[in-house]
Amino acid sequence: MxxxxxxxxxxxxxxxxxxxWVGGDRPEPKAEWLGHNSSHLASLQVQHLLLGDGNWNExxxxxxxxxxxxxxxxxxxxxxxxxxxxxxxxxxxxxxxTVKSGYGLIFEDFMNRVETVKHNSRLTDRGRxxxxxxxxxxxxxxxxxxxxxxxxxxxxxxxxxFHRRNIKVDTSCSMCGGNQRVMETSEHIFRDCGLxxxxxxxxxxxxxVEGAWGVSISDWICNWIRFLSKREERTREVILxxxxxxxxxxVRTK
Length: 254
Prior knowledge:
By secondary structure, this protein is mainly α. It has helices spanning 39-42, 58-64, 67-74, 99-116, 125-132, 142-152, 159-164, 186-192, 194-202, 217-229, 234-253, and strands at 5-7, 86-88. Mean pLDDT is 78; it is low at 116-123.
């Protein structure tokens, strides 16, 4: 019941403190009420915040809640008919569940979990913003979007991750050739490797990667997508940028 909201009826039995009844959120009391042991306060129901005529008891509400929460509660319209408490889905404007909003919740939960995982702590604010908003709307094939998401969230099966998990495999870059033993990281594969840097420089974008040392791959990709999106031929250049990332990964996997 953590992700549903409640619309209180006139004789609402919704618990004021445990239910999400204020726009899908659970209200919090003023600081002086925190830790208060009163059983009456703990069992307070929404109907106890109403006057006899069915309108909100503004004075009582403002004594319990901060100004922000009180204003939100007082903005909730009261029913003119004796309607029961109603469950609704707070992630859509209609209050009805949709598959899209459900997937959005799952993705948001995943991103929150990613933030708690140590090896994904390098996910930057820009990378997180791209993942949550613009990434899935980019005009490229779905498999390209998935690769982009994996790069930004550091979940690709590459040398650095094998090393971190103590998996005994060759963790050096397979594209460098010769006797070079460079640890395979996302930054190295997609930008700093000699082969990758030549691909970028020789493309129509003409990107030079020499000055990007020390910049995370997440920030580097997000900065370029944002920059290319502002240019006149933004759609073509953004597609080309992501296509090059896909091509580099295809070379690496082969």
